[in-house]
């Protein structure tokens, strides 16, 4: 069993930065593919960034060059560094974990709110 807890959300002006953290419980964090999703009011949840067990990353086009996903397996934490934030980045951000043998996301965090003012 893995529990995911996000933190680091908040209110920031456009152009600012935030770093989100997702702390995981359990002993097998390093074996999970990790993800960041976001959901804005009235919109579907969308994938923002992903990182494999080996550290390879992938990003949505809307955040490429501005967001960086990373993970620290020793600390069992994944991060999302968000720079040059825009009002359209406003959303609840969720972290998720997927085991290598899973076709769906196995675990979700509770979400953290990010609000970017213009």
Quick check: average pLDDT?
96
Helix/strand class: mainly beta
Describe the largest sheet: 7 strands, mixed
* Shape estimate: globular
Number of strands: 11
State which percent range the strand residues make up: over 45%
**Helix percent band:** under 10%
Uncertain runs with pLDDT below 50, 5 residues or more? none
What oligomeric assembly is this protein in? single chain
Taking the alpha carbons of the first and last residues, their distance comes to 40 Å
Offer a concise description of the structure:
With 118 residues, the protein is an all-beta fold.
Structure description:
- The model has no long low-confidence stretch (mean pLDDT 96).
- With 118 residues, this protein is mainly beta.
- It has no helices and 11 strands.
- The protein has strands spanning 4-7, 10-13, 18-24, 32-39, 46-51, 57-59, 67-72, 77-82, 91-99, 107-108, 112-117.
- The chain is globular.
- Strands 2, 4, 5, 6, 9, 10 and 11 form a 7-stranded mixed sheet that branches.
- The chain is 0% helix and 52% strand.
Key traits:
118 residues; mainly beta; 7-stranded mixed sheet; 4-stranded antiparallel sheet; 0% helix
List the helices and strands and how they pair.
Blueprint: E1 4-7, E2 10-13, E3 18-24, E4 32-39, E5 46-51, E6 57-59, E7 67-72, E8 77-82, E9 91-99, E10 107-108, E11 112-117
Parallel strand pairs: 2-11
Antiparallel strand pairs: 1-3, 3-8, 4-5, 4-9, 5-6, 7-8, 9-10, 9-11
């Amino acid at each position: 069993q893995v529990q995911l807890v996000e933190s680091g959300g908040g209110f920031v002006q456009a152009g600012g930065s935030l770093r989100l953290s997702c702390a995981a419980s359990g002993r097998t964090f390093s074996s999970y593919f990790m993800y960041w999703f976001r959901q804005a009011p009235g919109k579907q949840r969308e994938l923002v960034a992903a990182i494999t067990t080996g550290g390879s990353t992938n990003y949505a086009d809307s955040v490429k060059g501005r967001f960086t996903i990373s993970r620290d397996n020793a600390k069992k934490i994944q991060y999302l560094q968000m720079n040059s934030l825009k009002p359209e980045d406003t959303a609840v951000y969720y972290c998720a974990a997927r085991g290598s043998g899973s076709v769906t996301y196995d675990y979700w965090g509770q979400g953290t709110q990010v609000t970017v003012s213009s």
